[in-house]
Design goal:
Length: 92
Amino acid sequence: VFNFLKENNIKIAICTSDDRDVTEKTIDILNIGKYISSLRCGSDICLSKPSPEPIWEICNELNINTPSVIMIGDTMSDIYSGINAKCGKVFG
């Protein structure tokens, strides 16, 4: 899936409530860093999910409009963050 998305110029971002250190180590262990265009973590200086702020920051960095974003999450705060950010699609 990551190869397909990258080959089709579809950006992948991670927005997590986990600490940056642990997240970056996990990305390294999974060897997926080359696919990730942006990363926001709970230990970064911004509001956490369900605030839309981390998604807006990612979109600004990648020059993407939120209606064209697909947010996929595994918690209720993920879902509400995507809804609050007005993402085009939100799946959980």
